[in-house]
User: Fold this.
Amino acid sequence: MRRVLAIARREFRSSFNSPVAYAVIISFLLFTSVSLFFLGAFFTRNQADLRQYFDYMLKAFAFVIPAITMRSWAEERRTGTYELLLTLPYTESELVLGKFLAAFALAALAILLTLPLPLAVSLLGSFDPGVLAAQYLGVIFAAAAAVALGQWVSSLAKNQVSAFLGAAFAMIFLVFINSVAGFLRIGGTVAAILNWLSLAFHYEAFARGVADTRDLAYFVAVGALFLFLSTWNLSRRKWS
Amino acid sequence: MIEARELRKSYGDREAVHGVSFVVETGSVLGLLGPNGAGKTTIMKVLTGFHFPSSGAALVDGIDVVEEPLAVKRRVGYLPESVPLYQDMTASEYLDFAADSRGLEGNGRREAIERSVESCGLGPVYRRPVEQLSKGYRQRLGLAQAILHDPPILILDEPTTGLDPNQIIEIRALIRELGREKTVILSTHILQEVEAVCSQVIILNEGLVAAQGRPDEIGDALKGEERLRLRLKAVAGSILELPRLEAQLRAIPTLRSLGELRGESGGRAATAELVFSPSAAEPGELVFDWVVANGFKLLEVERRRLSLEEIFVKLTAEGGAK
Assistant:
């Protein structure tokens, strides 16, 4: 675990040495709050409801998380530090976990910085701290799953740009697939499968303020799957 | 100790190393020599556990790199050819990260960092960001990372590229010193480096061992001929006439051929290069007798060994195969 933290610390610190971390946090905060007040017609609805706010957070993830994770492996391979990491005494899973923790910490930081807005809004109306806790729980878990996905794409990509595009494409698919299914009036088993795959579908209850363990299990499973795939990918490269 | 047994490594369809075997004992420095693409870097990547071999085995202190990669990585200090550094860190942060990765703590950690900073001469740039460092300092920072944990095994891929002549001398001295107690493998294009540092050489060509042994052994085995270079002076008052001198030289017994022949100081002296067959009994003695018999004065005799450079060209230009 200490070695995992050594990787995570280096990684986290280095993300603040480039403008990417700041750009990511600022654009995430701007996007979510602007969307809430303007697109979400917050004032005309005349209701201190934050559901929209959390919906926009998930949509923002489609671009924000890939921006956080695009560097992780692709950049190490471009500069050759990949060879350093893999010849230092780390196992592949320690490297994957360390990088995951660092990127997740950055995403969590961005998410925590959205907290002042709901707290301010809560002054306007009746406020249920349980609902807010469930909403944040959902965002945090969704972010964790998305970070694992983004890093896996980065472990496959040749450079940062393709890592970003690949992860953004995958995220858009996972975030919007259930809306597309609804829009096209697809029903039955296909819809059920698309829903089951969709991040947005499992996120919906959280955004309403309901924490469901099945949805939590989905996020954990997605995260674990992609962490495993990244580890497998690193091991596979040694043989090729 | 490092051992490679029938090591093979393919990248896709291309086999980069076709069955290489060698043993490097503790306390010796092995130089891997060869043109680009000969397989030097691939062998090093396998020995450090970065790549796994396609077949055969690589053992570091008796530990198989495939079975226990972590134990191998703990023992090995590695300087890759590309000198991978994190550009956004300072030299000190970089070494701190290496120390964290190696699990160094407390006093041992501080001493390890001080020691490698000092032996690699990093003092002046210790607090500077890596992206501002010159090529020479980057190279030395990479080396400092490799020796940080005082590893019993050192694997250095072209450790002196980008250094100026003074730095090269310092780093070679450091490697020689490290090689007294450790097992060191280094790769290089520079043949003097092998002669200066290595106790053992492997010349690789197209993924095969073309020659193996001590630097002087390799020279002897491949020499094929004995060359002597003479500077002669005529006895006082007389002049050396080159055509006549040539005829006289050709009369030396067992001489195979005559190399360069050149007069100097208006014919009062001359330089000649003589080539003897390897079986010739002491060419030096024959030459001495010849000089005495012809009444010349001998100014200089130089025995010309085939340098590693010439051997290298010879081995690697002959289409690869041994």
